[in-house]
Amino acid sequence: MPFAQLKDRALISVSGPDAEHFLQNILTTDLDTLGDGEAKPGALLAPQGKILFDFLISRAGENAFRLECRADISDDFVRRLTLYKLRAKVEIAKLEQAFVTLAWGKESIASQSDSTAVADRRFRDESMTRSYASTVENGDIAAWQAFRIAHGVAESGADYALGDAFPHDVLLDEMGGVGFKKGCYIGQEVVSRMQHRGTARRRVLVVQAGHPLPAAGTELTVEGRPVGTLGSNAGTTALTIARIDRVKAAMDAGQPILASDVPVTLTIPGWAKFTFPQEAVSAEEA
To answer: Do residues 139 and 236 share a domain?
Structure first.
């Protein structure tokens, strides 16, 4: 039963009579569909539609929510949420002590009495539980990273820079992190236009190679032209956010895709619904 404890995460509490209305109006996640005992991904966007903060959100009681994010961005996240608070009756606070314990597979290490245990809904084809009360030590961090990479779940910092990616780029649209039927939220117009026009060209793909891959940040190229950049790396498997039109053109033409000098294969995560473009990309568009 694999498990791991993350020490680079932080928890932010948002509570009060207006908590749900406040968050629903600024975040990408549709809280009307957020049930008890589950954590959904989401983002706070810039007006131009790019991700400023990414997180997992879960219910923490009546009129209360728990937002789990990277520890190094948590203070800025609190400040940004407070900026939007205005007269809303909400309290926003960073929790001083945060334990984030993960368990995956058919069994869970979270006890039935652990009210903080939630199902991580980013994983569409496997069971993943996050607990905020368990104090088990360390576990297998490398196994967790390999599991996340194999399932095509990208995270900021490791796989993309905040301020540099749209929700579609990192598959938030496919893992329940964007509410297309909810009302307006910050950046909603850009995201909705991308969804309805089907113009998302950058997508998370799983990278596989026959030899160890180079470090994160290495460009993926086709005949010297970039198609993406390596992110999280687990030996011979990694993630990339790549131009799927350029990748499809390379595959159709039988051109090798390289990470430095290592030939790689790029595949769509098994749970994802998007496909490679059916029309070939022209040289001018590439």
So the answer is: no
CA pair distance 14, 60, nearest whole angstrom: 9
Residue with tokens 């089907």: 198
Looking at the structure, tell me whether residues 9 and 149 fall in a common domain.
yes
**Residue 67, phi then psi, degrees to nearest 5:** -115, 120
HEC string of 60-117? CCCCEEEEEEEHHHHHHHHHHHHHHHCCCCCEEEECCCCCEEEEECCCCCCCCCCCCC
Give every CB contact of residue 278 below 8 A, 6+ residues apart in sequence: none
* pLDDT at residue 108 is higher than 70: no
- pLDDT band for position 284 (50/70/90)? very low
Task: Tell me the whole-structure pTM to 2 decimals.
Answer: 0.92
Longest CA–CA span in the chain (Å) reads 59
Q: Is residue 239, in this structure, part of any structural domain at all?
A: yes
